[in-house]
Amino acid sequence: MAESNGRIEAIAEKVEAGERLCFDDGVELFERATLLELSAMADCVRWRLHPEPVVTYVIGRNINYTNVCWVQCSFCAFYRVPGSTEGYLLPKEDIFHKIQELIELGGTEVLLQGGLNPGLKIDYYEDLLTSIKARFPVHLHALSTVEISYISDSSRLSLKDTLKRLKAAGLDSIPGAGAELLVDEVRERVSPLKESASDWLNLMQIAHGLGIPSTATMMYGVGETLAQRIEHLIRIRELQDRTGGFTAFIPWSYQPNGDALRGRGGSGYGYLRTVAVSRIMLDNVQHIQASWLTMGPKIGQLSLQYGVNDFGSTVLEENVVRTAVTAQLMPLDEIRRNIADAGFVPKRRNSRYQLLE
Fold it and tell me: What positions does the domain Radical SAM core occupy (predicted)?
């Protein structure tokens, strides 16, 4: 025990000095550090990067334009296979109506995601993005890497050309969805038809090179080892060293929702450990976003003491990871109150983390 405590103390000294932690340091933190030790180290990194007592949020809305998807990830209960009577493709007018509701709330960000619908090629997406931009002053944080890869393949275009055309049509940034765990051993078990870890990273690198920023995520709690979580974080950190294109990192725990995986939901304790280690390891990613949508508002509030500096989006609706927790979305006033009650100043931002107030 004394040796373990000594190793944690040595890692804490590195964190305080602003030194980068290695893979073994990260595993040691996950396996040995107490929750209080992780909180202290993550908080140290948070205040170094963000010396003001501010926690940001964005007024945004999720819009799932289609649920038709042939990939059939084991942790997803949202998709419907092509030909299903429960499959849908939202008409443009329905999408416009949802965005108008967002605009009336002072919103600025539209998170547009769906499934891999074989009936949609790049002309559909170009028309949709262009139509939205012509009508609304919103930031389109849209299309996961797997959607973009599928658009590229089905339209017989290179990834670079696909991204160029989507950017020209109005794509502003890319959500980090689809990362799951950037460890192929895990991906092959939970989403065998999805792209590889290297494919995900490669698409993000191309996007960053074209001036399209993105977020990065980690879905944990699907039977991976703690070392595999660190492997995921290291791969994000290495790409960020090369591109600087990740604006934020969002770890979230798998939540059972009637899906084929039928796993167990993660605990608040496990989430706080994971988000703290993420903040400590990702020394080159400016923002860590709370995952209150999957963990609940109180754990989201508590995470502000574990390295989190952003409360994310108002969301307004959620269909993909819909559970008893995610069905209870927070109104704007509740987001601001949770931030203020934790001792921070809530401030609204845009999708590029520029303060709007």
Answer: 55-283
246-259 per-position pLDDT tens digit: 999 999 997 655 44
Q: What is the pTM of this model?
A: 0.90
Q: Is 180 annotated as a binding residue?
A: yes
Is 191 among the annotated ligand-binding positions? Answer: no
Q: What is the pLDDT of residues 179-193, one digit of tens each?
A: 889 999 999 888 887
Backbone angles phi, psi at 84, to 5 degrees: -65, 140
pLDDT at residue number 292: 87
* 238 is an annotated ligand-binding site residue: no
Q: SS3 letters for 98-132?
A: HHHHHHHCCCCEEEEECCCCCCCCHHHHHHHHHHH
73 annotated as a binding-site residue = yes
Sign of the C-alpha dihedral, residues 135, 136, 138, 140?
Answer: negative
Region of residue 90 (left: phi > 0; alpha: psi -120 to 50; beta: else): beta
Find out whether 76 is annotated in a ligand binding site: yes
Domains detected in the chain:
35-348 (3.20.20.70)
**Is position 69 annotated in a ligand binding site?**
yes
In DSSP terms, 139 is beta-bridged to 109
Q: Which stretches of the chain drop beneath a pLDDT of 50? A: 1-2, 73, 258-260, 318-328
Report H helices in 244-324. Answer: 268-281, 292-295, 297-302
Burial of 88 (0-12, 13-18, 19+ CB in 10 A): middle
Q: Is 44 labelled as part of a ligand binding site?
A: no
pLDDT at position 71 = 61
| Residue 75, annotated as binding a ligand | yes
